[in-house]
Each structure stands twice: as C-alpha cells, then as structure tokens.
Amino acid sequence: MTRTAQTTQTDDESRKGLRQEIKDAVSVRAAVLVIGVLALQLAFITSYIGAFHQPKPHRIAVAVTSPDTQIADEALYRFDRLPGEPLDPRTVGDEASARRQIAEREIAGALVINPRGTNDRLLVAGGAGGALAQALTEIVTQLEQSQGRTVRVVDVVPGAAGDARGLSAFYLVVGWCVGGYLCAAILAISAGARPANAHRAVIRLGALLLYSAAAGLLGAVIASPVLDALPGSVWALWGLGTLVVFAVGALTLALQGLAGIVGIGLAILLVVVLGNPSAGGAYPYPLLPPFWQAIGPALPPGAGTYAARSIAYFRGNGAGGPMLVLAAWAVVGATVTLACAWLRRGRATVA
C-alpha cells in the first residue's frame, strides 16, 4: 500500500471516528431536546420583553364622585374621552361608596372632586401594585392640571413597609410555582418518563400534596411573620400556597404523562414563559399589552398573585375567582395524570 493510500485510509478512519464520537456524545434525541430548549429560551425572551418593554395603561377602573353631580358628570365625560382609553371611569354616589369599591377590588382608585374649590383628592390602593397607583396618579394629575385644578393623593390601601412596590405577593407566588413544577418533575422522572401504573400516579399525587402543604406553609411564614413583607392571614396564605403548588405540580405531571419528558418543557412554557410576565406582578393587568392581559388571570401565576394581594390587603375580597381558577388547574391536572396512568395500564393489559 502506498503512502498516499495509507494517509487517505487514516483520514477516513479519523472522520468516521469523529462522527461516531459526536453521535455517542449527542444522540438524536438529545439534539432534538436541545433545539426545544433553544425555542423555549427564545420564547422566554420574547414573552418577558414583549410584556414589559412598553407598559401602557388601558381601561384602569376609576370612580368619580362629587357632591355636585354635574361636576362629576363633566369629569366623567373628560375621563371617558382620553386618547387611547387609559381609564374606565364611572360615577359613584359619594366617597364612602368609592372607598368600599376600592376595598372590594371593583375599582383601582377614585377622584373626589371638591365643588367649592380647586383642590381635589385621588384615592388609590398601593396594595394592588405600586405601578398601577403611580400610573393612575400621573393620568389624573395631568388631566386635573389641564383644568386648572390640583390633586392630593391618598393611599387608602397602602402596601406594607416591607413590601416594596407591592411585589412581595408576586415573588411569593413565583416561588410556589417553581417548587410545584420542580417537585413534579423530580417525581415524574424518578422511575421513568411516564407513570407506569395507576398506583404510582396516585402515590405521586399524594407526595405532591404533602409537599404542597409544606411549601405553602413555609412560604407564608417567611413572607408574613419572618420578613414582615405581607400582612393578612397566614392561614389563608397557607391555603393559597398549597393550592398554587399543587395546581402547578398536577399540571406538570399531567403534561409529562401526555408527552413524556417534553411535557416538563410544556409546563415551563405555560407557567414561566407565559404565566410569570402576565401575572400582574411588576405591572398589574391594566398596564400590560392585550395578549398578556387576557391570558394572565387564567394561568396559575396570575391567579395566585391576584389572590395573594387580595388576602394581604383587601381582606380576601376578589380572591374567589382566582382560587377557582387554581382549583380547576389542580383538578384537571390530577384527573389527566390518573387518566394517562389508567390508559397506560389498559394498553399493557391488552398487550
């Protein structure tokens, strides 16, 4: 064999060896999963920047009241015709009614107009989110100045001293969500990518429930008495936390039962990529773009954040709807998880 032929054979063997090393190091399945991770990463970037890059108020619920109903109607007319519809105004009978609606989370604030002077008061609720109160203050102040009037801001539901800009509820719920899908992911992959039988699925749901109760209690204790970041009932926050963690965990188990390990990525897509930026944490719903504003209340992070603020600052007012959303995720997730296990058991029996 000539030297040239030997060199060619060696090069071919090297290339074959390199290809084999690459195949051994990165399988086709791994390559597909890496591509999926890249898509998830790009979706994360798009979702967060899309939700937060240009907050713009849209239809913030605000009341107008004055002893002089004509003055109140004139202010309502001006509010209702602002460009871009930043406000959703309505009139109420008096200041007491306005305060009650703020406490019940029916409105974000109220302008109390003084018919005998030019000094008015704007009632806001800092506990519902600092960004929302700030946006409402800026809009109303500019409109009042255009009418030659001044406004004094009164925070009737102020945030706690340890709750900077009302973000503690959001971060607490995010922590609960992270624990929910990580716990479920660990349970799901501990003995294969899919539930082997119904008994294992029931045991995993039971373990998830125990974890949810522990995570809910510890999170509530840390946020309330330990760090003094959230007021309100620790018991109510514990119940909410248990429901949030279990709902997210059951959702993760269900998706994993349907799609295998890819289901864990789908859970992250729903909860982290879509759920967190639309949760109304950094920017409450009226400041988010329409898409995120629409999906936020239907996903666990948004429902949990709204309910946590309601418990902490509004005596639970407005928490009923979000709690039902979380309960629905929990029930559907657990049902699908069990159904996948039973179907798998049926196929195994037939085989």
Describe the structure.
The protein is α/β, with parallel strands linked by helices and 351 residues long. The chain contains twelve helices and five strands. A five-stranded mixed beta sheet has the order 2-1-3-4-5, with helices on both faces. A hairpin with a 6-residue loop joins strand 3 and strand 4. Helix 6 packs parallel to helix 8, helix 7 packs antiparallel against helix 8 and helix 8 packs across helix 9. The radius of gyration is 27 Å and the shape is elongated. 43% of the residues are buried.
Question: Secondary-structure map with pairings?
Answer:
Elements: H1 3-25, H2 28-52, E1 60-65, H3 69-80, E2 87-91, H4 95-103, E3 109-112, E4 119-124, H5 130-146, E5 150-155, H6 168-189, H7 198-226, H8 234-259, H9 261-275, H10 290-295, H11 300-313, H12 320-350
Parallel strand pairs: 1-2, 1-3, 4-5
Antiparallel strand pairs: 3-4
The low-pLDDT segments are: none
Strand content: 5-15%
Largest sheet: 5 strands, mixed
Shape: elongated
Tell me the radius of gyration. 27 Å
Q: In which order are the strands of the major sheet placed?
A: 2-1-3-4-5
Mean pLDDT: 90
Order of helices and strands: HHEHEHEEHEHHHHHHH
Q: How widely separated are the two ends?
A: 57 Å
Helical proportion, percent range? 55-70%
State the total count of DSSP E strands: 5
The number of helical runs is 12
Produce a short descriptive summary:
The protein is of the alpha/beta class and 351 residues long. Helices cover 65% and strands 8% of the residues.
Which key features would you list for this structure?
351 residues, alpha/beta, five-stranded mixed beta sheet, 12 helices, 5 strands
